[in-house]
Amino acid sequence: MSNKFDVIVIGGGPGGYVAAIRAAQLGLKAACIEKWLDKDNKPRLGGTCLNVGCIPSKALLDSSHKYHDATEEFKVHGIGVEGVSMDVNAMVDRKDNIVNQLTGGIAGLFKANGVTSFEGFGKLLANKKVEFTAHDGSVETLEADNVILATGSVPVNIPPAPRTGDIIVDNEGALDFREVPKRLGVIGAGVIGLELGSVWKRLGSEVVVLEAQDQFLSLCDQDLAKEAAKIFKKQGLDIRVGARVTGSEVKGEEVEVTFLDAKGEEQKQTFDKLIVAVGRKPFTDGCLAGDSGVNLDERGFVFVDEQCATNVPGVFAIGDIVRGPMLAHKASEEGVMVADIIAGHKAQMNYDCVPSVIYTHPELAWVGKNEQQLKAEGAKFKVGKFPFAASGRAMAANDTDGFVKIIADEETDRILGCHIIGGHAADLIAQAVIAMEFGSTAEDIALTVFAHPTVSEAVHEAALAVDGHAIHIANRKRK
Ligand code: FAD
Ligand code: AMP
Q1: In the predicted model, what is the mean pLDDT of the chain?
Q2: End-to-end Cα spacing for the chain
């Protein structure tokens, strides 16, 4: 086999594997190098997303949600269940099976599309040569016309809470608890901290989330953040903002965490497990030879332009190692864009229309700009909101927390952002994403026919509310 390729992708996560498949579909000779080994030392494709991120976390969220339904929700519908129990091992094994199936599926897709898979470590050398070190230690040099760097990200460690592997864990460890911790501490009230905290809270842990920032979920629309804080409190998640962790000490089977509270006073709290979820950082360790010529920015991200080209011609970088949100779908779309460009097509990605989701219950999902960003820009805009409490379908499902909020330009009516908190927010947001992608106005959505009864009618009603014409709520008087 020749070791010369049209495209070599380093990293087989959702950025890299999608780029490799797309390149092969477009007739390019494509290869993908992936270093991941599972607990049994078997090579695995799929990266963070499939192995220890999006998919396994959602598997546990779905299992724990069903348990919560059985213990708390069924009785509302008149369903009596007795002796409900949770077999945590079975839940975690189910999650592992899903991961096995999906990662194996990527290997199948590589075969079907003719992508050459290299199992081991890739390092970019000068002149688009790539050094490949297989898991058995053998080394060969590959050549390519184009290289795509897609080496992803790893969890940030903080000195006050170094991982111990059993008691102090990162997201990976938190997906593998084999029993429900009685007292669970979570450092960081970001997406990962809230999702994993929710899983274990539903299964019975007392969960305390320590968040250094004073503002809860500062990254999202503050209407959503306030609603979420209220609901999570009702669910029993103890979220302490302004709480900066300064130290931790493992004492036998537990860990004592020291933190400065919102008043700056030192507090101590003891947990059986501690999840450190303080963010992720780009991973490029050992991936770039000194003379590869690829520039990083001051935060360690690979420096790229709008079309993911690095400063070295023919070398691209995508996903978590480049600027922008660390999201699987953002990585994948960049992979598609870059493969298209390499194949000689015109391609670009609309970074204004990348949705974000937090998969708690209710879910939080948003796209475009939020109210505080628009106010800071001095933009003139109008807001339409519709609560799920007024949705017949949400009522039928006993899932009435939250609302849809649509923000439109005051003059042109063009949709600038959509922010949803509710049971199906992750799926509903796609409607707003499509609308924004097509440059729709709020009126375009208002004039669209939505099936009844569906929770998506709340999107319709929020669009109607933008101009004070919602039907199923009393509209705010407009000036
Ligand atoms: P990665 O998925 O990190 O893949 C990079 C791959 O490159 C890895 O497999 C790594 O082994 C490999 N690699 C690195 N260096 C080399 C090398 N030199 N040679 C060979 N291989 C190499 N995002 C969402 O959109 N939705 C979610 O619901 C979501 N949930 C998440 C939950 C958790 C707990 C976590 C941790 C993350 C979650 N994310 C979610 C984020 C998402 O997983 C990442 O944004 C996504 O995986 C980034 O894709 P990537 O291809 O850039 O990198
Ligand atoms: P995210 O980047 O969305 O995963 O969120 C990580 C969160 O962890 C951020 O909101 C940080 O403010 C928070 N964080 C970082 N360091 C600490 C710390 N020492 N104590 C408490 N929270 C922290």
Answers
A1: 97
A2: 72
